[in-house]
Specification:
Layout lengths: L1 E7 L5 E7 L2 E3 L4 E4 L2 E4 L5 H21 L5 H17 L10 H16 L9 H8 L4 H17 L4 H4 L26 H4 L2 H10 L3 H4 L4 H13 L3
Antiparallel strand pairs: 1-2, 2-3, 4-5
């Protein structure tokens, strides 16, 4: 049988303590679910740090094992070995702070700089040369694809209340605009249902009204090239 009681902390909040028989159950400031670490304040900085560390370790192994790094080799290796770590469940732990975004982006900066002939180019030019998006823009692309699937009924049970549809009779652009909410806490603004609204509403009509997911993905490539 599990007993519990609460104690008031210095900050005025109550912290619950549990006991199983005669043994106290210790609390933990972080919890891992599906290999994603989340702390008690819903801050994922630790998850970002661990992810960047793993990805950088793999990049180091690739660099040490190759005598000559060319794009025909490094791009497939990065896509199959490095990027999965940077994008695994990223819709859940999407970076909240600029320092975390830069920490993750540094991995791809290092990755593209390893390619012979591109090491002296600025990061943005290396991306254009390789036909890549920044990691921030790739995360945005995943958010927009997920929003498209929700709104088109792919996840009908969960998608009906993903966000309120805005009245769009007066607009000539996006026919599936979402209503942006007002929230007191900054952390709430980072949730998927909130952070995707501004970018979704900025998409052209041909992207949001695409007849299929494949068509939507293709049209997003062009739309994202001009988005912030």
């Amino acid at each position: 049988m599990i007993d519990w009681w609460d104690t008031e902390t210095r900050s005025g909040f109550f912290r619950y303590q549990y006991r199983l028989g005669d043994e106290d159950i210790e609390s933990s400031p972080t919890e891992k679910d599906l290999r994603v670490l989340v702390d008690e304040k819903l801050d994922i900085s630790h998850q970002c740090a661990l992810t960047a560390q793993k990805a950088n370790h793999i990049l180091g192994c690739i660099k040490r094992s190759m005598a000559r790094i060319v794009r025909e080799v490094i791009l497939p290796l990065s896509s199959s070995l490095v990027r999965p770590h940077l994008e695994y469940c990223v819709g859940i732990w999407n970076p909240q702070h600029k320092k975390d975004m830069e920490l993750l982006e540094h991995v791809q900066r290092r990755d593209t700089k390893m390619i012979r002939g591109l090491e002296h180019l600025p990061y943005e030019e290396r991306l254009r040369e390789l036909g890549l998006f920044s990691l921030e823009k790739r995360r945005l692309r995943q958010d927009l694809i997920a929003a498209f699937q929700y709104l088109k009924g792919a996840y009908r049970k969960d998608g009906e209340n993903i966000s309120s549809r805005a009245c769009c009779d007066r607009t000539r652009s996006n026919g599936f605009k979402l209503r942006d909410g007002i929230f007191r806490l900054d952390v709430r603004k980072k949730f998927f249902t909130t952070r995707v609204v501004k970018h979704w509403n900025g998409l052209p009509r041909e992207s949001v009204e695409a007849p299929s997911l494949g068509t939507c993905k293709a049209r997003l490539e062009g739309a994202l090239s001009s988005m912030v």
